[in-house]
Amino acid sequence: MTDHKALAQDAATKLAELTGVETHDVALVLGSGWLPAVDALGTASTEINTTDLPGFHAAGVVGHSGKIRSLEVAGRRVLVFLSRTHFYEGKGVAAVVHPIRTAAAAGCRTIVLTNGCGGLKESFAPGQPVLISDHINLTATSPIEGANFVDLTDLYSPRLRGLCKEIDPSLDEGIYVQFPGPHYETPAEIAMVRAMGGHLVGMSTTLEAIAAREAGMEVLGISLVTNLAAGLSGEPLNHEEVLAAGKAAAGRMGELLGQIVPRI
Ligand code: 8IG
């Protein structure tokens, strides 16, 4: 057992103690703009502070709260991380993926990774949820250490994407490109992303998805397009826009999550 895995196991043990729930089934990580959607998912049976668990850091972004909720949705024990540690916080990749490893140690076989992002496709409008079909990791790093050559084919579960499209046939898919951040892209970088085949740009998710796959979890990724990528709208990018897009789209995303979780 590596140290990272042992620390996650410690966190899972404490989590079970604090929630009174021995194992969880599904983990959900919230990105920018997603909090209102989760409020629609159901009432938390317990809410704890991430900092009550070993290995977690305090939340660093406005609109992200450092809490973990445990709730039951249609018989599934769901673990909701209301915030994430971002790569740009400089706490290291292990800190970024610690919640993922904790969820795996807590018993979760499935993880839903959500984020707020910039959109490149002409058809994308702010407030639109998009299924992540694949990713390009531009952080130049990995959460995996050592010679563990994890396969990332079909990282974003075709089965779960199919389920989502059964629930909402209007859902589109896109390739998510993670930049290190915390600055947004330049218009030239967005042109590069387009040339690479990317459709969504953000500062999270890919490292978490890799760690989830390493831990054997099935991954569903959903991006909320909160803004058009840099240079596409003629307007500067700002964080308030992100939070507003989340509020506006909460109903649709809450319904989507509410219908997916029971079918996972
Ligand atoms: I919300 O346009 C959100 N997060 N890199 N670019 C990047 N991250 C983002 C963006 C964006 N919007």
Give a quick set of tags describing it.
264 residues, five-stranded mixed barrel, binds 8-iodo-guanine
How is this fold's topology laid out?
Layout: H1 3-19, E1 26-29, H2 35-39, E2 46-49, E3 67-73, E4 76-81, H3 93-105, E5 110-119, E6 128-137, H4 158-167, E7 172-178, H5 187-196, E8 200-202, H6 206-214, E9 218-228, H7 239-260
Parallel strand pairs: 1-4, 1-5, 5-9, 6-7, 7-8
Antiparallel strand pairs: 2-3, 3-4, 5-8, 6-9
8-iodo-guanine (8IG) is lined by residues 32, 116-118, 179, 181, 184-185, 201-203, 226-227, 229, 237, 242.
- Mean of all residue-level pLDDT scores: 90
End-to-end Cα distance, whole Å, is: 29 Å
Q: Report the bound ligands by name, code or SMILES.
A: 8-iodo-guanine
Work out the helicity level.
Answer: 25-40%
**What is the helix tally?**
7
- The stretches of 5 or more residues where confidence is low (pLDDT under 50) are none
What does this structure look like?
Strands 5-8-7-6-9 form a five-stranded mixed barrel, surrounded by four helices. The model has no long low-confidence stretch (mean pLDDT 90). Helices cover 33% and strands 23% of the residues. It has seven helices and nine strands. Helix 1 (3-19) crosses helix 3 (93-105) and helix 3 crosses helix 6 (206-214). It is an alpha/beta fold. It has helices spanning 3-19, 35-39, 93-105, 158-167, 187-196, 206-214, 239-260; strands spanning 26-29, 46-49, 67-73, 76-81, 110-119, 128-137, 172-178, 200-202, 218-228. The radius of gyration is 17 Å and the shape is globular. Bound molecules: 8-iodo-guanine. 8-iodo-guanine binds at residues 32, 116-118, 179, 181, 184-185, 201-203, 226-227, 229, 237, 242. The site of 8-iodo-guanine (8IG) has 16 residues, from strand 5, strand 8 and strand 9.
